[in-house]
Write a structure and sequence with these properties.
The chain is built from four helices and no strands. The mean pLDDT is about 80. It has about 120 residues and is an all-alpha fold.
């Protein structure tokens, strides 16, 4: 979160900086076990499902930012690439904004879920 905000601020100041979002969300157990649920009567189960759905959406945003960053770093210094760089940088910055927004939403949701889990 802090790194994404810092890079976003630098981009707004015109500093060329990229952030490779290498974080991998540990969702393997969730993905494997979701189809095996037999009872969702516990109100915590749908809440957990919604949380992981939102987490997977953040993963897609992160992947888009990473792909855009790779495209930006592959640009040459040709006139056409310089023109493309500006629109790609705007898209990259807006993707970082979206990632920051989603992280800000997920952090309190995660804390709330953790507090609800049985000890």
């Amino acid at each position: 979160m802090q790194d994404a905000t810092e890079v976003k601020d630098l981009l707004q100041k015109g500093v060329r900086r990229g952030l490779h979002l290498a974080t991998t969300f540990q969702t393997g157990v969730y993905s494997c076990q979701l189809g095996m649920l037999r009872d969702v009567s516990d109100p915590l189960v749908p809440e957990i499902i919604r949380f992981y759905d939102r987490l997977s959406n953040l993963e897609r945003v992160k992947n888009h930012a990473t792909a855009r960053l790779f495209e930006l770093t592959a640009l040459a210094k040709s006139r056409e690439d310089i023109l493309r760089e500006q629109s790609m940088t705007i898209d990259y910055a807006s993707t970082l904004d979206e990632a920051i927004k989603r992280i800000n939403q997920l952090l309190p949701a995660a804390e709330s879920l953790i507090n609800k889990l049985p000890q």
